[in-house]
Design goal:
Layout (H helix, E strand, L loop, with lengths): L1 H31 L2 E4 L3 E5 L8 E6 L3 E8 L2 E5 L5 E5 L3 E2 L3 E3 L5 E4 L8 E5 L4 E8 L2 E5 L5 E5 L5
Antiparallel strand pairs: 1-4, 1-7, 2-3, 4-5, 5-6, 8-11, 9-10, 11-12, 12-13
Length: 155
């Protein structure tokens, strides 16, 4: 009888551990999948969920963020440098955006390292994704400049 009781107790503990693990992993997984980009020309990034909070910095259109929390109409966001702040949901949409994460990124005329360099940008420049071809991404800046960038140069 003692062994049966012990066996049941072990099964209960294992089930509780499994449920706990799912509860911790699932919310992170759901939010980690949601990535949105700034739809406004310029957006104020704030220290808290409301206009009464300080503006920490501003970002351009297409700046991508990962959503880590939602509080009514405000989203807690994380950027490519792991900075965390708040942004109103009306300033975001599902447009696929990328941002340069390296200094001096070459934007090329074709998806090939031998093609012409159209322009070069520094770290932190956001772009809209137009197309993907193997390891290359065709991008467009808010000012209309278009070109191809190698995928390891962006987040």
């Amino acid at each position: 009888l003692f062994m049966k009781q012990l066996n049941i107790d072990v099964k209960i503990v294992k089930a509780m551990l499994a449920i706990t693990a799912v509860l911790f992993i699932l919310p992170g997984f759901v939010f980690a999948q949601e990535r949105l980009s700034v739809s406004a020309g310029i957006a104020n990034i704030r220290s808290g969920p409301g206009t009464k909070y300080d503006v920490l910095w501003q970002v351009e259109q297409y700046h991508p963020f990962t959503i880590i929390e939602k509080q009514e109409d405000w989203y807690k966001i994380k950027d490519f440098e792991n900075d965390v702040a708040w942004l109103h949901k009306s300033l975001l949409d599902k447009t696929e955006g990328v941002i340069t994460k390296k200094e001096q990124c070459n934007i090329r005329s074709k998806p090939d390292t031998k093609s012409q360099i159209m322009f070069t940008v520094e770290k932190g420049v956001p772009f809209k994704v137009l197309e993907r071809k193997k390891n290359w991404i065709k991008i467009e800046h808010a000012d209309g400049d278009i070109g191809w960038i190698y995928k390891t140069l962006v987040w």
